[in-house]
Design brief:
heterodimer; A: mainly alpha; MetI-like fold; two-stranded antiparallel sheet; B: Rossmann fold; CBS-domain; four-stranded antiparallel β-sheet; binds adenosine-5'-triphosphate; binds magnesium ion
Chain lengths: 717, 343
């Protein structure tokens, strides 16, 4: 009784768990139940039940409602699909002027908008692409095909790779200095020599369109939300869902709306990259001390000046994190959108992975990662630039970068010209090293992989078998064994205990959506993989973070490592694990663990760092040893921040689990992947994405509520 | 009396949702307590006063008494909930956006309590900022800013970022920034609070020197009575948003309007506040000794001289005409007597 008074929360939790397990045992597995693999759900089976809703036929296997809820939302994907089709093909037909045929034509409004957007994006991408690689689409866009036929020499020649490399190095030098210039130069040379020039420039042109557009839109919407409560309220739910929505899932609807190609890729990249930019912009603007704004006003700023010269620069730190996120997402999408026909490194990477050519995948992956890091560092340096008012510079000093670039153009062109003589019969390597005609280490890596496989095959196999048979399968079986009602009770109960009635309702709504969708079983599998990954990631992350925190230098180093790892597109993580473990669940899980360990480590270090220094000193003065200090002071105080890390870890893990479907897992991701090649996949893809997003949101809601309460309790809110 | 630059008529500032409506209902009878119960905070309560050209009005009061809020209303950083404010005869609340910007660019300067420097700009960029906003060329604004840097004694640090400066140094940047445009009307919210005593005294002297020369209209907030006495033409004392008394330093000390003001000024050393005129005997002009003091002398400065006299000391005005007299014993009374009353 005394204990009960002392720890009421503990007993409430125990009670909740008891109810949960009681339900699990009380509700038997129906005899007809089995985990449905593959397409069986779409095949008409006499055992299936049927219901009609809004004129849609939904078929499903009926079970006891305590065991599995019927898929009452089964009509939703079909409905979304039909809705999209209707919007695109029938809604609001209007007369539009057609340039090519010189006459008016009737078209649905949305289709026309989509077409215009498409051609605009295509133009932008082609423009940059042709500056880098050459081509004639841009000229054609301004004139016509006939014109080009008449003047074939008008075709853009493209820049020799030497000039681009020199340009990148000079720009880096101007922005940051020798270090970055060296890195930029070497990256470009690597890309060129290894024959990845063309795909790299294709990817680069995609990024150079997608990233700035995402940045501008994100910043603009963020500012709008900062200025108007109403805009913020309207945006907030979308932002929330998009934060946990797997990037995969938006591909399918985009396919319907914008078709296949680079332009569609840019548009979805914006859909994915804009929300975090908005969130960080709002966050940064909100954190500006009001007096700074007043100081701006008193200086006589107009609204524009206030925004451009006071608000945005003052909120720079968060906005920069936003830029970093945008770049990260763009590169991630550069790979993923290869599924809908974006050209470039991502396409090569997927192709190589598909053919199990690990060496080639590795080279492409390395290229993407290097460019990602380079752009990230350059954008950072650009934002941190300082002006020198006092230097009395000569003309040469002020313009030396431009002069150098001019010089490098001349030299590059001369070299390319000389190249035409040296490499008369083969390719002009001084102009562009063609794809796969450069140096390649692919064979070396492939042999390495083979060697590892041959040498360690027994051990890897044994480990693999052990993990799958003794750990993963039982765990998965346990998750699937949960009756729907028990899971609901557990989720809602946890919501109530953590955040009261409000949280309970939110969690209940989110869980019910998933439970009523046709993919509850798949969601459980997704959850099991994510849980496994998150638990191990957190263990590793907390340990590594804590150890690194003991020393200022190692902490800074570790944060730097996290930064770099975070810039890698998520697909790149699949390469090394496939090298070692082939196509198994183990591969996916290890990729999940590596990927999700990044936020776990980072937030641990940051959390520990945020413990006020005064407290350290006070603790040391009162004779506490290092270990006691860690357990008694630092951990409890840093824990709320570390929980936010867990939150991020969950999101990262979910993303990777979904991407893992590429290797072949049986979770929600598998269906998303399938929806990609399905003519009517848009609704399914979107609904599946929402399911995954909701899994993330359930944890997000619980953790955030808990953290806020805890912070208030500790007085560090 | 010279022309009025700032004029406030029953200015109210009330924070909260239905502030405006509640103010109307209150009918000019605003009570902080009842408003607070309804979820509103009274920042400024019925403030009416005028500040003349070249005058320095010092605002004092406890923390949270509404000093900063009053300043914000007059600079229209927040819109007053009720009342009228005139700047050089113009109705401030009637100004449109453009006129307001013009006013701020050319007439007003403000030093903020928490410095409010732009974190991404260096010292010199911060100071040049208002000039650049006005459209001054980069070269001119930077060279003007460098003069200001020298004036506040920060030369050598012009390329530092605010985060690399101590609190006092940041405050001096704030002062320099507000001075850069040479405003006619200058608002200072505790401008010297973060300075060490030495620099503070230096800045005060510099400030007085500048004021002598430039004759700006100034509203100055401080918590330091000594500072107020040194600088003020008049002092306003605020409590819970209400201006309890607004008068010359001497009157505030000698004739406190309310119990609160009396308590507030109780510890103030009288000899620093009062001038001879305040305590002299104007009726007696005979039997004077050799020593003459001016009626505008602060007691502290001449007390020693007077106390060494045995005879009655004559008081003269600026034309050297005798206007009254003072006994040495009166000085002792003033300096020590006041405090006896208070305790
Ligand atoms: N933006 C605001 N919203 C709500 N209440 C406010 C706001 N700004 C000020 N107040 C309230 O108005 C009152 C007066 O605040 P003000 O900042 O004017 O005090 P102050 O006299 O300048 O104090 P200090 O000497 O500490 O600077 C305080 O009770 C404060 O809580
Ligand atoms: Mg204040």
């Amino acid at each position: 009784m005394e204990y009960l008074k002392k720890y009421p929360k503990l007993f409430q939790w125990l009670f909740l768990l008891a109810v949960f397990f009681a339900l699990c045992f009380a509700i038997d597995v129906p005899e007809t139940y089995k985990f449905i693999r593959g397409q069986a759900e779409f095949v008409k089976d006499p055992n299936q039940s049927v219901y009609f809703f809004l004129g849609k036929e939904v078929r499903y296997y009926a079970f006891d409602v305590f065991w599995r809820l019927p898929p009452l939302l089964g009509w939703l994907p079909i409905w979304i699909n039909d809705g999209l089709f209707f919007l695109m093909n029938e809604w609001m037909p209007m007369e539009f002027w057609n340039e090519d045929t010189q006459e008016f034509k009737t078209r649905p409004l949305l289709l026309q908008i989509s077409r215009n957007l498409t051609s605009f994006m295509t133009f932008l991408i082609e423009l940059i692409r042709e500056i880098l690689l050459g081509g004639l689409e841009t000229i054609v866009a301004f004139t016509s095909w006939d014109f080009i036929d008449a003047y074939p020499w008008l075709e853009l020649p493209g820049l020799p790779w030497t000039i681009v490399a020199a340009g990148a190095a000079i720009l880096s030098y101007k922005l940051s200095g020798k270090g970055l210039a060296l890195f930029a130069g070497l990256t470009m040379i690597y890309i060129s020599l290894f024959g990845q020039w063309k795909p790299s420039m294709q990817t680069l042109s995609f990024i150079l369109v997608a990233a700035p557009l995402s940045f501008i839109f994100g910043l603009g919407l963020g500012i709008a939300a900062y200025k108007s409560k109403r805009v913020e309220k309207a945006l907030y739910p979308i932002l929330l869902v998009m934060q946990t929505m797997p990037q995969y899932a938006v591909l399918v609807p985009a396919l319907v709306l914008f078709g296949v190609g680079d332009h569609a890729a840019v548009i979805i990249t914006m859909v994915v990259a804009v929300p975090p930019m908005i969130l960080l912009t709002i966050l940064g603007l909100r954190a500006i001390p009001p007096e700074v704004i007043e100081a701006g006003r008193m200086s006589g700023c107009t609204n524009w000046q206030l925004m451009l010269k006071v608000l945005i620069p003052t909120a720079r730190r968060d906005i920069l994190i936003g830029v970093n996120q945008v770049i990260m997402v763009c590169f991630s999408m550069a790979v993923i959108s290869a599924f809908i026909g974006a050209k470039g490194l991502g396409f090569n990477l997927l192709l190589a992975l598909n053919q199990l050519n690990i060496g080639l995948a590795l080279e492409a992956g390395l290229c993407i990662s290097l460019i990602a890091i380079l752009l990230d560092k350059m954008s950072l340096a650009w934002a941190n630039q300082q002006q020198d008012y006092f230097g009395n510079l000569s003309f040469y000093q002020r313009n030396k970068n431009i002069l150098f670039f001019g010089g490098s153009i001349v030299v590059g062109i001369i070299l390319a010209y000389i190249g035409t003589f040296i490499f008369k019969d083969t390719f002009n390597y001084l102009f562009e090293v063609p794809h796969n005609k450069g140096i390649s280490t692919a064979d070396f890596w492939n042999k390495g992989v083979d060697w590892i496989f041959d040498t360690f095959f027994v051990y890897i196999k044994a480990f693999n078998t052990w993990l799958i048979v003794d750990v993963l399968q039982p765990m998965r079986a346990l998750y699937l064994r949960m009756p729907a009602v028990a899971t609901l009770v557990l989720a809602v109960g946890a919501g109530y205990l953590i955040g009261g009635i409000r949280s309970a309702l939110v969690v209940a709504a989110l869980t019910l959506f998933i439970a009523l969708s046709p993919w509850w079983d798949r969601a459980l599998v997704t959850l099991y993989m994510a849980t496994f990954g998150v638990v191990i990631s957190c263990l590793i992350g907390f340990t590594v973070g804590t150890i690194c925190f003991q020393n200022k230098k190692s902490a800074a180093f570790m944060l730097g490592v996290c930064d770099i790892f975070q810039t890698f597109p998520s697909f790149v993580y699949l390469i090394p694990v496939m090298m070692l473990f082939g196509i198994t669940d183990t591969s996916v899980l290890i990729a999940v663990i590596v990927y999700a360990t990044i936020p776990a480590t980072r937030y641990t270090i940051e959390g520990l760092r945020s413990v006020p220094v005064g407290l350290h000193e006070a603790a040391t003065m009162s004779g506490v040893n290092k270990f006691q200090r860690l357990t008694k002071i630092e951990f409890p105080l840093a824990f709320p921040h570390m929980m936010l890390g867990i939150n991020q870890t969950i999101v990262f893990a979910l993303f990777m689990v979904i991407i893992g479907a590429f290797i072949g897992t049986e979770d929600l991701g598998q269906y998303i992947l399938k929806a990609l090649s399905d003519k009517n996949g848009a609704g399914i893809g979107l609904t599946l994405g929402i399911c995954v997003a909701f899994i993330g949101l359930i944890f997000d809601n619980l953790i955030r509520t808990w953290v806020e309460k805890r912070k208030k309790h500790l007085g560090i809110a | 009396m010279s022309e009025t630059v700032i004029k406030c008529e029953s200015v109210y500032k009330i924070f909260g949702e239905n502030a405006k409506k509640m103010l109307e209902e209150a009918n000019g009878n605003v009570d902080a307590k009842t408003f607070q119960d309804k979820g509103c905070i009274v920042g400024v309560n019925n403030a009416s006063f005028e500040v003349a050209k070249g005058e320095m009005l010092v605002v004092m009061g406890l923390s949270g008494s509404g000093k900063s809020t009053l300043l914000r209303c007059i600079s229209r950083l927040t819109d007053a909930t009720g009342g009228k404010i005139y700047i050089e005869g113009q109705d401030l609340l009637e100004l449109n956006n453009k006129e307001l910007i013009d006013l701020r660019r050319n007439k007003m300067g403000m030093v903020f309590q928490s410095f409010a420097l732009l974190p991404h700009k260096t010292v010199v960029e911060n100071i040049a900022f208002p000039l650049q906003i006005k459209g001054t060329s980069t070269n001119d604004s930077i060279s003007r800013a460098m003069e200001m840097v020298k004036l506040v004694g920060l030369d050598g640090r012009e390329n530092y970022f605010p985060r690399e400066l101590s609190g006092g140094q940041q405050q001096r940047v704030g002062i320099a920034r507000s001075l850069a445009v040479e405003p006619d009307i200058w608002f200072l919210d505790e401008p010297f609070s973060a300075l060490d005593p030495l620099i503070r005294k230096e800045m005060q002297d510099e400030f007085l020197r500048l004021q002598e020369k430039l004759q700006k209209t100034i509203m100055f907030i401080t918590h330091d009575f000594d500072e107020a006495l040194k600088l003020a033409d008049r002092i306003a004392i605020m409590k819970d948003g209400i201006i309890e008394q607004l008068d010359t330093p001497a009157n505030i000390v000698l004739n406190p309007a309310t119990e609160y003001v009396r308590k507030f000024t109780e510890e103030v050393p009288r000899e620093k506040v009062l001038v001879i005129e305040d305590v002299m005997d104007a009726s007696n002009k005979d039997n004077l000794g050799d020593l003459k003091v001016s009626k505008d002398d602060i007691i502290e400065n001449v007390a020693e001289k007077i106390l060494t006299q045995e005879k009655i000391v004559g008081v003269v005005d600026s034309d050297n005409k005798v206007v009254g007299s003072i006994k040495p014993s009166k000085i002792i009374d003033t300096v020590f007597g006041g405090r006896k009353n208070g305790s």
